[in-house]
Known about the structure:
Layout: H1 2-22, H2 36-67, E1 74-76, E2 79-81, H3 85-108, H4 118-146, H5 156-170, H6 186-200, H7 212-238, H8 246-276, H9 281-289, E3 291-293, H10 294-300, H11 302-311, H12 326-336
Antiparallel strand pairs: 1-2, 2-3
Helix pairs in contact: 1-2, 2-4, 3-4, 5-6, 5-7, 7-8, 10-11
Amino acid sequence: MKRVLFLGLLAIAWIALIGAAGAQAGVLEGSPPQTALFNDARLLALATPFLMALAIIVGIVQARAAARGLGGDALLGDRVRRHDTGSIIAHWMNAFGMVACLVTGALLLRWHERVIDLRTTFIVHFLGAGLILFAVTNHLARHGVSGGVGLIPKSFRALRDLIGELFEYLGVFGPEGAVLRIPWPKGLRQPVGRYVRGLLGFKPHDSGKYLATEQFLSYPPWAILIGTILVTGLIKLAKYVYPIPLNWVSTATYIHDLATLAIGIMLVIHMLPLLLVPANWPLLMSIFRTTVPRKYVEQRHPRWYKALLKRQPVPVEAPAAGAQPATAAATDAASAD
């Protein structure tokens, strides 16, 4: 409850702060000259706090719904829900926003000849940035309230699993978890596999909900890069509302451009394990349909499967016809005495 109140107050304070700035008459000294591009950017700057506040409110609602069992992972017959609808929407908002910003960013930086006019390019860039900002703010609010930290490594075992999974991708433990199902030669992989198992205590096909490669090589780099691109982007945007020092804007722009290049590289790294390792294809499909086959979870993610089983409600057997509840029988016996 404290986290909910904190995030709510933060959203209100953020709106009040930007609203006070936006209410000032005229153009602040040090602001860029007023043009169509200036007005477009200023509109986004003024809309940003309200967009973030909306994302926080939606995130809080989602977290409370998940706490009542209306979301999150769950056993659903022969399927297992890995992501709920809210997570899927946030993921694809972020993905579409990222693609829009990467493409328009490449055009703005002259990495490719522009195919649309400058103002339209900026508008598409701003729309993409808005999608990313909403998705990230929603993600932080939702998991800040619910305490969801499944993608954050919590023990040394996760590091051992990371090394083991990389060996598995190389084909050391056979074709099942290997890239393109191509294993090492049997005479070589068996001794190496035994050595890796013994050294690390690694068990193939013994993952939790998230793979160790997701916990180390996907989520943290994405968090750093997207955080960098958002913070620097907000600094660049703030100059349309506040008189930001020019050297701040220049430094933010330089870091923003470098982060753009890094995100393009990270996108390729992110997709390779999903596309090249057939054992991970059900995880890839879950971001479209929310679920994975139950049998797959039982075989490839047994630690997650056991946790799901523990959360299943214990069925209560109905009393046989004509039988009295234990308490009623005891009362009748006492009366007879």
